[in-house]
Amino acid sequence: MSRSIAPSSGALRSLLQSQQTTRQQCRRFLSSTAATARRPTAPEASLAQQQQCLRSRVVTIEQRRFKSRSVEEQKSRYRTGPFSWKAGLLFVATSGGLVWYFEHEKQRMQRKRVAEATKGVGRPKVGGEFELVDQDGKPWTSANMKGRYSLVYFGFSHCPDICPEELDKMARMFDLVEAESPGAVLPLFITCDPARDTPKVLKDYLAEFHPAFIGLTGTYDQIKDVCKAYRVYFSTPKNVAPGQDYLVDHSIYFYLMDPEGDFVEALGRQHSPEAAAKIILSHTKDWRDPTKR
Fold first, then answer.
1. 227 among the known binding-site residues?
2. Binding residue per annotation — 53?
3. Tens-digit pLDDT profile for residues 16-73
4. Residue 163, annotated ligand binder?
5. What's the whole-model pTM score?
6. Which domains does the chain show, CATH number per domain?
7. Which end of the chain has less neighbouring CB within 10 Å, N or C?
């Protein structure tokens, strides 16, 4: 009968120590292997640092661009959209300027058409050359009208009511134009009654209305030719005895002539002094000297 052999205590202790040492060596090997796998190489570490730096810069820029104190401020910032009160004001100002410009150009072209229509082919010409004498008895011709606009009125000094009213109106027109554009208009009064309107009579008569008015007279034939050139109707009664009072029937218009002596527009009794002055000033502002173009 055989008996079992029990290992000695020393041999058992030695075996346990050997197994424990082997386990420790395995743990150190595995941990060192994992650490090596997690540790990036030099180029990988540099690339990771650059990416991290770039992310931080992007975050900083975004924070600067959209800096706000609260979520409500961010909402109000984006609620306005691309428009603001400054953009609206600029739009209104630009629109108003364009409307004014086109309206101004429209009126200017209309005045130009009115002025050029009187010079059209087939239309009777208004105005022309003449030779008369002024209220001082000096020769005065149509050449004196060149270089500036002229406002011409035909009447007579013995007119009881219409001529005085129109000359008062002419004085008001002239003052309004003169206040804004000094020297732009020459005011002329041509008599339709040369038999009674001598230079001295005209000088005394016109002095009651305006000192700048120039009165012109001449012989009956000279006055008749001027009235015909300006398409002015006038009529004196026949068989008038010397010293007898009479009335002269005539057209009632103010003739606006340009600096070249051409007819521009006729202003009638329907125009107030202010309206007439505005029309005259609009034409004077449109004028461009053809010799300086």
1. no
2. no
3. 566 566 566 556 655 555 555 455 455 555 566 666 655 655 555 555 554 545 555 5
4. yes
5. 0.60
6. 131-238+245-286 (3.40.30.10)
7. N
